[in-house]
Write a structure and sequence with these properties.
The chain is mainly beta. Helices cover about 10% and strands about 25% of the residues. It binds 2-acetamido-2-deoxy-beta-D-glucopyranose (NAG) (6 copies). Its EC number is 2.7.10.1.
């Protein structure tokens, strides 16, 4: 008789026996041909026949399942099941996979077999983890700690404007007292956070919205959703965008600030969520889902936005455009009289300041028209709105009889993250990191 046939015979016998003896103990498992669990093999053993793998697996407390290499008669003992790690369960024509038949300990129930997360325990054991304690090695460095899943679920960090308004950012972190963000350092309106432990985090970020306009709305900030693995001790510099100002009806609104997260000290961006443009006679444009801003005159490649007017019609937008990460916004100062819309930018205080020079909002003639911190452009108080800040700045779009602020651009380190153009609620920006359990 060939080994394979003997094995099938054995499996059949095993089930008959276990069903007829103790129903509680019956762990009839089906072997899955041409499949294997990758990455969790802790022991390989040469055996005379496949059923010997069951015997070898049952000798090891951490054995959860095994792969069998059919032509080589080798058992590969795994310390996970395919339920715990479905993403590692792959087609493999040379192997079959089977879960441990008897005596499998639940994942995380003993210190020798810690889980990496509560998510993994739920997947592996198919039950809720509430109220129980588990051995979890969150850092994946071999140090397991006994804890409840509810405790680690509470690990979330939400970075806000800390109550600051208008063109300057916060100067203290008292608003975080009693929260997980308490140790955050505030310098020049930017917040520095040291990641407290290694793990995967869900992140959600919003740019701020632009100020309301004549009878129009400010553009809403772009929203970013993603998952990131961060190492303990990594330092992030966070600038949370502040909403654009508005003087009330009959006037225009200033640009909203972008929300920025960069790795310190090299200042490589993790994400930037664009702020919305201020409302003019038309609604402000939303924070964009591209690195370039939205609307006419949008900045590109990290630069500030342009201002578009028509000098021949005496359309000189007197407001500021939004800033990008690298280049500030500016003003429209054209001596040339030409017909048709002209887009340009000259340095001025009304433009938002780029992230690298501080990120302040543009400075207006009156305080109620300052741009939002995070590079928002100032409004001029009458008809012209400011552009939003972002990875690239929003422009100011105007022509005969109408105007609208452009939205800032967005950037994500990982292209699988979702960016929703104008996906945020009206208000200030924020960025939150929630532990993925
Ligand atoms: C599981 O096995 C892998 C090797 O595949 C090993 O790196 C890891 O430490 C083992 N984990 C446990 C909890 O035994
Ligand atoms: C593993 O990481 C945890 C949490 O970061 C830490 O407390 C522990 O000291 C680390 N252990 C080793 C052996 O590095
Ligand atoms: C973070 O805080 C902002 C502002 O308070 C709030 O709008 C937002 O919903 C919070 N985000 C999360 C994920 O709790
Ligand atoms: C802390 O910052 C908030 C918001 O900007 C401000 O209102 C408050 O006065 C500041 N507190 C101190 C002690 O500086
Ligand atoms: C974004 O993340 C939040 C939680 O942080 C979640 O509630 C929401 O469904 C996510 N949205 C998308 C589109 O993934
Ligand atoms: C910002 O400008 C510097 C030079 O001033 C350049 O080296 C860098 O690539 C620019 N960054 C981006 C994101 O465009």
């Amino acid at each position: 008789m060939r080994w394979e046939n003997l094995f099938l015979f054995y499996l059949g016998l095993n089930c008959v026996m276990t069903f007829s003896f103790a129903v509680d103990q019956c762990r009839s498992e089906v072997n899955e041909q041409e499949m294997a669990l990758e990455g969790f093999v802790f022991k390989k053993i040469l055996v005379p026949a496949p059923f010997m793998c069951d015997v070898e697996c049952e000798k090891e407390i951490t054995c959860q399942s095994y792969n069998y290499i059919v032509k080589e008669n080798i058992c590969e003992l795994n310390n996970r099941t395919k339920e715990a790690r479905p993403e590692n369960f792959r087609r493999d024509p040379s192997r079959f996979y089977i879960r441990r038949l008897a005596g499998r300990v639940p994942l995380g129930s003993i210190p020798e077999l810690p889980a990496q997360s509560c998510h993994e325990i739920r997947a592996s054991e198919g039950r809720e983890t509430k109220g129980n304690k588990y051995w979890i090695d969150q850092a994946g460095n071999g140090t397991a700690r006994l804890g409840s899943c509810e405790e680690s679920m509470r690990a979330w960090y939400n970075f806000t404007t800390l109550g600051a308004t208008k063109r300057h950012g916060p100067d203290n972190s008292t608003g975080y007292r009693g929260t997980g963000c308490e140790g955050v350092q505030v310098k020049g309106g930017k917040q520095e956070w040291t990641v407290p432990f290694t793990g995967r985090f869900h992140l959600e970020a919003c740019g701020a919205s632009g100020g309301r306009g004549l009878s129009s709305a400010g553009g809403k900030g772009a929203k970013i959703n993603g998952t990131v693995r961060l190492e303990k001790g990594v330092k992030l510099v966070i600038l949370v965008g502040q909403r654009g100002s508005s003087r009330g009806s009959g006037h225009s609104g200033s640009g909203g600030g972008g929300t920025f997260v960069l790795y310190s000290p090299r200042m490589r961006p993790l994400l930037v969520a664009g702020g919305g443009g201020g409302g003019g006679s038309q609604n402000g444009h939303p924070g964009n889902d591209q690195v370039d801003g939205s609307g006419n005159g949008a900045g590109s490649n990290g630069e500030g936005g342009l201002l578009c007017g028509d000098p021949a019609l005496a359309m000189h937008p007197d407001s500021g455009s939004g800033a990008g990460i690298n280049g500030s916004g500016g003003c429209f100062k054209s001596a040339s009289v030409q017909s048709g819309q002209l887009c340009m930018k000259t340095d001025c205080e009304k433009g938002g300041k780029s992230f690298i020079v501080g990120g302040e909002g543009g400075k207006a003639d009156s305080a109620d028209c300052h741009g939002g911190f995070g590079g928002g452009g100032a409004c001029d108080g009458d008809g012209y709105p400011g552009g939003g800040g972002g990875y690239s700045g929003g422009g100011v779009d105007s022509s005969e009889g109408w105007s609208a602020g452009g939205g800032g651009g967005s950037f994500v380190e990982n292209p699988t993250w979702i960016i929703i153009k104008g996906g945020c609620d009206e208000g200030d920006g924020y960025v939150s990191f929630t532990r993925d359990n």
